[in-house]
Amino acid sequence: QARWPFYVWDEATGEVRWMCSWDTTEAEVDSFAAAVADAVGAGPALSSPAGPRVAAS
């Protein structure tokens, strides 16, 4: 939480709430995702359960 503050919803289950501002950049999201991947040991191969990112048209 030092770099990216977030809400802990349920300490017993480890449930947290992540959110960002509408003006958050893609680079900031990528940096956050990389930090989460490193924290859980997934490395750079972490992917979204929603599927691949779709480029804005």
From TrEMBL:
<dbReference type="GO" id="GO:0016829">
    <property type="term" value="F:lyase activity"/>
</dbReference>
<protein>
    <submittedName>
        <fullName>Low-specificity L-threonine aldolase</fullName>
        <ecNumber>4.1.2.48</ecNumber>
    </submittedName>
</protein>
<keyword id="KW-0456">Lyase</keyword>
<dbReference type="InterPro" id="IPR015422">
    <property type="entry name" value="PyrdxlP-dep_Trfase_small"/>
</dbReference>
